[in-house]
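Known limitations

Structure tokens in this collection are predictions and should be treated as such. Users comparing against experimental data should check residue numbering before alignment. To illustrate the layout, the record for Carbohydrate ABC transporter membrane protein 1 (CUT1 family) is reproduced below. The input appears on top and the generated tokens appear beneath it.
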Amino acid sequence: MADTLLAGPTTTAPARRGHLGPSPWHALAYVAPALVVYAAFVLYPLGRAVHLSLFDWDGLTLATFVGLDNYLDVVTDGDLRAAFGHALVLIVFFALLPTAIGLVLATLLTRARVRGLPFFRTVVFLPQVIAMVVVGVAWRQLYAPDGSVNDLLGIVGLGGVARAWLGDPTFALPAVGVIGTWVQTGLVTVLLMAGISRIPDQLYEAARLDGAGPVREFFAITLPSVRAELAVALTLTVIAALKTFDLIYITTGGGPGNRTSVPSYEVYNRAFRLGEVGSAAAVGVTLTVIIFAINLAVARIGERR
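Generated tokens:
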């Protein structure tokens, strides 16, 4: 009898809790609509791109299965290798330079207690709200042989280096990269200003009592405190660098030659101009994998303590 009384609650309580608790199907029901939308607009197109990348297809006639040949072309085709190389160069201009400049600007604007801070924040962020097509047209005029850039160089006595910047095989890619630096610096600065403004002033006061100067404060307090914001900024800007298309299309059209061609432009060029849909899909899938890998690495580094 005593054994029965002792055993009763231990055998019925778990079953009662399981009956009254939330069912796993309830959670699935909540996320199901989002999963359906995500699958319809992200997973299915991605799967369809992977499927097309295994065929030689011009978009009109019957497709021919070629296996991984299109991916082999991504590795062996010199133009495609150059396009991916250009995208990696643009990471320097779209991600690394804006991060460095934005970190300095955010520190100065936040720690120096600049008057009219909302005005400066708006001015710095302004390039982000301008359509990239407008940015491309404006900078194409600035880089023209009779544009403002060459006029400014002539005023400061550097007229000898004036040139058609977007038509020069050597300087065309850096010229496009400078536009990316101008656009992305505002986004990075605003993100880092939000992170720096959350750092308690007591930390800086304690550092000054220990004899730390502005440089040591920056490396000992500011930089470690905005690691998460840096990871977000790098993720967004690296994605912008690797998937940029409109800026290249408007400013250089991939030229001169193929000196500014990037993977996104090659996807458009091969799919809609050359009729190589399978090859374009392979380039797109490869670019997606590279973007995922780079941003996964950035996220893992940002999570380290």
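For this record: The chain has 14 helices and two strands. The longest helix spans residues 78-111. Please report discrepancies through the issue tracker.
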